[in-house]
C-alpha cells in the first residue's frame, strides 16, 4: 500500500490491517494540524506591538501554508495519487496567487505610503 | 437477470448489499420518472445527452443570437449614418451597443466555440462521448436559458446600458436604476456556470478519453486549442463570477463594494473584470485558430508546418494572456509603473500569435492549394487577424494607446480580431464540417459569394473605423456633429454593415438551398475533402455511436496516412481507397447512455431564481426547489434504462473482413464498448 | 441486461482505473476525481478574488462604522476553526471505512462530519449575529460587505457540503452506496477538505493577521 511508505513514523507489519495503519496516519496528521492551530492561536496572546510586524505576518503565513499543504497531501491524498493531480491543482493555485498578487500590486497594496485604497 | 451478473469480489452471486435493494434492480428515481427513451422529435432533443446534438444546439442557438446581435449592430450603424440623428434616443443607444457587445461575446462567439468543441473534439480523439454527458446537456440548456433570460430584459424594462463591461460605479443603482444591468449580471452568471461545467467536462474528456495510441502530441491542433480554451475558461470564469456577485450584492442588497461614499474604489471592478476579460478574448480566438490549423493542411495538401510550435504557441498564449489585463486600463490612473509593466507584457504576447501566422503561411507555401470556400475563409482569418493584431500592437504602446483608447480605433481593432479572426474561422469551419454534421455539402458557388461579400462588407464597415478613431471619434456616443468631419467614413461603415448583413443572408439561404438540393446530389460520403484527421473516417452524417470500432492511432494525421504513403523519393502516393479505410454505415450494437430529463429541469430553475432576485424574492423559492429537485433526480437516476432498445450485443468488435490495416496494427477490440455516464 | 455491464457491477480490475465508463482512462485517474480536482482549481480563482477584495477593503473609510478586525472574537473563532479542521479527519475516516466495506463506521463518521460542519456553521451564525448587534451589518461599510461576502460564500460552500454528506448518508441507508462506489464519497471528501483549507486561509489572513 502506498500509504505504508508515506511516513517514517509508522511501524508497518505485513500482518497489520492496512486500513488501521492508514487511519492511524490520519489521526496523527490531525493531531499535528491541531498542534499547529494551537500555535497560531497562541500568537493572539503575544504583545500587540509584536503582532503588527511583518515577521509576525510571515510566520503566520508559513504556518498556514504548512497546514494547507498537509491537508492536501494527506487528507486529500495528493501524495499518494497520480502526480498529474498535484500538478493540476497546484498550478491553478499558483496562477491564482500570482494573478491576485499582481492585482494587489496594481493597487499599490504592498507600499503602505502609496496605497490606492488607504486606511 | 442475476445469471448475467459476474461474481462480485465478495463471492456472492449478486451484488447484495447489507441493506436495501440490489443495484441490479433499476431504482425508480423519486418513484415517478424513468429515463426517457425517445429517439426522434423535439423530446429527443430536449432530453439528449449526445455531444453531437448538444453541439448542434449550441451552434443553432448561437446563430439565433447572432441575428439578434446583428440587428442591434445594424441599429447602431443606422443611427450613425448621419450626424445628429434621432433614430435611437441616447438611452436606447446605450442599451443597444451594450447588448450588441454582450450578445456577440457571450452568446455568439463563445457558444460557437463550444459548438465546435462539443461536436468535433470527441470525434477528433476517437471517443464516443464526453466524460460527463448529462453535465454537458446541463451546460447547453443553462446557456440557452441564460441567453434568453438576458435578452428578456428588452421586454421587461430595457436592456443593460453600461457597456458590455459595465464599469462601476456607473453600473450601480444610483446611475443605472433600471433592471437592465441586473439582467446582464444574473444572465451572465448563469451562462458562466454553463461555461465552467463545460470546461471541466471537456478537459477531462481530452485528458482521459483519447483513443488508444493518441498521445497528446498526436492530437489535432483543434483539440489542443480546445484544451487550452477550456483551461482558460476554467480559471477565468470564476473571476468574473466573483466580480458579478459583488455587483449583484451592491445593486440588490445594498453592499458597498462600489459605493464611492463608503470609500469604494471603482478600479476594483475594472481589475477583476479585465483579469477575466483578457483571457476571455484569447479563449474566443483559440478555437478558430484550431479550426484553421486543421483546415489549411487539407486544402494545401501539406501537413501543418511546425506542429509543435503551433501547439506550444497556443499554450503560451493561454499562459501569457493572464499577465496583460491592465492594458485595458492604461488611462484609468493606475500609475506609470503599472502602465509600463503591462505595456511590456502586452508587447510580448504578440510573439506566439506571430508564430502561428508564420506557420500557417508556411503550411500553404508550396502546397497544392484548392481554393474552396473553407480555404477562402482561412485566408480571410489570417489576413484580417493580422491587421487586427497589428493595430493591437499599436495599442500595447501605452503613450499611443492614450490617444487611441475610447475611440473607434479600438472598435476597429477588436472587430478585426473577433469578426475578421474568430468569426471568419468559424465560417470556414461551418463550410468544412457541414457535410460531416448534416450529411450534405453547402453549395460552393453560394459559399464563394458568401465569402467575398462578407469580406467586402466587413472591411467596408470596420476599415474606416481606424481612420475615424484616429480623427478622434469617440466610442459609445449616440451621435456626432456635422462639423466633426466624421460623416463620410460613417456612411461608408453603414453601407458596409448592410453589406455584411447581406452576406449573412446569403449564408442562411445557402443552408436551406443546399438542404433542398441535396436530394438530387450524391451523398458526400465520409471524406468529401480528402482530409487528414480521424473524424473523416466515419460516415457523414456522424452515426450516433461515432466510431465502431474505436481506431488505434499511430501518428498525427492518422487518417491521412491510412490513405497515403510516401515513395522513397518523398512523393505522396495513394495506398488505399477511402472506402477501404473509412468506416461504413452499419448497424452497430453499441450501448450508449440513455437520455435524461434532469439536466434541462435543473437548468430551468436557474433563470427562475434570477427573476426572483430581480422582481420578488419569493420566486427564488420555487426556482431553487426546481434546481434541487433536478439535482436529486439526476443523482438518483439509474445510469441506464435497462428497457432501452439499444442493448449491448456481445460480439467481435471489428468489422468482418477488415483487412485494410496494411500499415496499422488492428484497431482496438474493446472488451467493453459501453459508455456509462456518471455525470 | 444493459445494467449487467454497469461499471459498478463488474468486478473491478485493480490495475485498470475505470473512468466511470468501464474502460481505462489515459491518465490513470478516474473522470470524476479529475473533474473534481479541476473544479477545485477553479474555486481557487473564485476565493482568491473575494480574499483580495477583503484585503483591499479591510479598513472602512473613516467615520463609516467599525472595522471587522475591531470586533473579532479570536478565541471563539479558534474553536470553530478547530471544529472544522477535525471534521476533515472524520471525513477521511468515513472514506476509509467505506473503502474497507464497513458501512456502519462509514455512516457514523459521515454523521460526525456533518455534525461538526453544522457546529461550525452555527458558530458562524452566532458570530455574525453578534457583529450585527455590535453595529456591523452587511451594508454598514465597505469592510463589512467584504467580510460578510467572503465568509458568507465560504459558509454557503460548507452548507452545500453538509447537504451532500446527508445525501450520501441517506443513499447509504437505502443501500445505494456499496463499497464499489466509495469513490463518490472520496470525491465529496475532496470538496469537503477544500472547503476546510479555504478556511485555513481565511482564518489566518482575515482573522489572525491584524491591520
What is the structural class of chain C?
Answer: mainly alpha
How far apart, in Å, are the first and last alpha carbons of chain C?
A: 65 Å
Order of helices and strands of chain A: HHHH
- Strand residue content of chain C: under 5%
The number of distinct β-strands of chain A equals: 0
Q: Which chains have the largest interface?
A: B-C, 74 and 59 residues
Uncertain residue segments of chain C? 1-16, 18-22
What descriptors fit this protein?
heterotrimer; A: 119 residues; mainly alpha; 4 helices; 63% helix; flat; disordered N terminus; C: 211 residues; 6 helices
Write structural notes for this entry.
The complex is a heterotrimer of chains A (119), B (679) and C (211). Chain A is mainly α. Chain A has one domain. Helix content of chain A is 63%, strand content 0%. Chain A has helices spanning 18-42, 48-51, 54-75, 83-106. In chain A, 22% of the residues are buried. The longest helix of chain B is centred in the N-terminal third of the chain and has 35 residues, at 90-124. The two termini of chain B are 26 Å apart. Chain C is elongated. Classes of the chains: A mainly alpha (119), B mainly alpha (679), C mainly alpha (211). Chains in contact: A-B, A-C, B-C. Chains B and C meet through helix 5, helix 6 and helix 18 of B and helix 1 and helix 5 of C.
Quick summary:
The complex is a heterotrimer of chains A (119), B (679) and C (211). By secondary structure, chain B is mainly α. Chain B has helices at 41-46, 51-79, 90-124, 133-151, 180-208, 221-253, 267-300, 307-320, 336-364, 373-396, 398-404, 408-438, 444-470, 487-517, 558-563, 578-581, 598-615, 620-636, and strands at 564-566, 572-574.
Topology of this protein?
The complex is a heterotrimer of chains A (119), B (679) and C (211).
Chain A (H helix, E strand, L loop, with lengths): L17 H25 L5 H4 L2 H22 L7 H24 L13
Helix pairs in contact in A: 1-3
Chain B lengths: L40 H6 L4 H29 L10 H35 L8 H19 L28 H29 L12 H33 L13 H34 L6 H14 L15 H29 L8 H24 L1 H7 L3 H31 L5 H27 L16 H31 L40 H6 E3 L5 E3 L3 H4 L16 H18 L4 H17 L43
Antiparallel strand pairs in B: 1-2
Helix pairs in contact in B: 2-3, 2-4, 2-14, 3-5, 3-7, 3-12, 4-5, 4-17, 5-6, 5-17, 6-7, 6-8, 7-8, 7-9, 7-10, 7-12, 8-9, 9-10, 10-12, 10-13, 12-13, 13-14, 17-18
Chain C lengths: L30 H27 L10 H4 L2 H26 L3 H31 L8 H32 L8 H27 L3
Helix pairs in contact in C: 1-5, 1-6, 3-4, 3-6, 4-5, 5-6
